[in-house]
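Session log. Operator J.P. requested a structure for one protein chain; no other inputs attached. Running the standard single-chain path with token output.
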Amino acid sequence: MKYTDYTDSTERVDAANGTTNDGELLYRELTFEIRAALFEVYNTLGPGFREETYRRAVLRELKLRGLCAEPELFAEVRYKGSVIDRYRMDIVVESKVVIELKAVEEMKASFAAQLLSYLKASQLRLGLLVNFGSDELYVRRFIR
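Structure written below.
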């Protein structure tokens, strides 16, 4: 199994956010457990299935690991006090991490923009962009 991890150095948190400034990653233990679940799904299923299949498998694996994982939660976009739109997020784990799943051969910049929009609308800080559709499991962290 191949794995590509695109962890940005910009995701470090500082003391003002209740964490140390010694390089500790945001939600380190939680994202470690999420990544382990993603590996398990990829190792078991491999590439080639549709996104919905991976969503169901990831939800099942996260629940088997004792994590609270909610599918298809909506994030509301507000403008001057009014809700003007809603986005459906694939999976939200422990009310902290948004997982945006893809099952495509090539990743596009618009996928990252989509996840960042979800983070902004939901007011959550951490998102994982995941692609099961190639010969490598792709996981990239994004911080709002």
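Operator note: The beta strands are 2-6, 69-79, 82-93, 97-102, 126-131, 136-143.
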